[in-house]
Amino acid sequence: MRTLIVYYSFTGNNDILANDLKRRLSCDLLKIEEVKKRNGFTILLDIVFNRDARLKPHKVSLLDYDNFIFMAPIWVGRLAAPLKTFLKNNRKEISRYSFITVCGGVEGQKEKLTRKLIRLLHRPPEIVTELWVADLLTGGKKGASVKTTGYQIARKDLVVFEDKIQEFLKVNQLKAQPV
Ligand SMILES: Cc1cc2nc3c(=O)[nH]c(=O)nc-3n(C[C@H](O)[C@H](O)[C@H](O)COP(=O)(O)O)c2cc1C
């Protein structure tokens, strides 16, 4: 299987995860980049008007890959607009895929994200995994309320998510290197 990680990150959390998985899997990495620098206001405008993002063209031939790992933050219960636009633009070249995100953490949003991915790509993901910043801040304690938006993780924080990451990699039938 030839795997490509395709990711978008606004504040760096998914960047850290993408580079960690790239290192473990020794696979290729494609960062989705926008034409204009984004801010909190344009995040909200894109959501309110259901707008697509304007992406810089990428130079990777997706047809060279048969397994995709997509990664992006969640904004107001939705896939970040740059990833959504990438998936819409490239649907026909995308085969087997999975989705993983470092997000704030909201109960029940995973099902909604899975439905959205199926609508966009016309096929189900192998696995959808959420790594909740909330779990980092509360030690996984249910019901504890913390402010997660804007929190920036460090690479060492990924240790907390190791079980979920291993499960994600296993479903991808990929042999992962230890941390
Ligand atoms: C405007 C905004 C809305 C957000 N909404 C959600 C949300 O609905 N659910 C969630 O789990 N996280 C939400 N988050 C948190 C981000 O998904 C989280 O901070 C993520 O790790 C950021 O990833 P990045 O650093 O790669 O951009 C939101 C963040 C922002 C800025």
TrEMBL record:
SUPFAM superfamilies: Flavoproteins. Gene3D superfamilies: 3.40.50.360. This is Flavodoxin family protein.
